[in-house]
Fold this sequence. Notes:
Layout: H1 3-25, H2 31-54, H3 57-64
Amino acid sequence: MKVKHILALFILGLICTILGALFKVLHWQFAPELLTAGTFIKVIAGLLGIWKLFTNQEFKKFLDS
């Protein structure tokens, strides 16, 4: 998975979280579901980003120096 895909996934999670907060303020339905989905998407994107970082050869060289 490329970094741009991970960033797109994180931005999608951010949008879901912001929409969920807006729905919560306006007392609309599905606010908790949007907040939960956005948070899970951001966590998955974060874990994928960490995995991508640690599997990168240049990062391993940087850690060894």
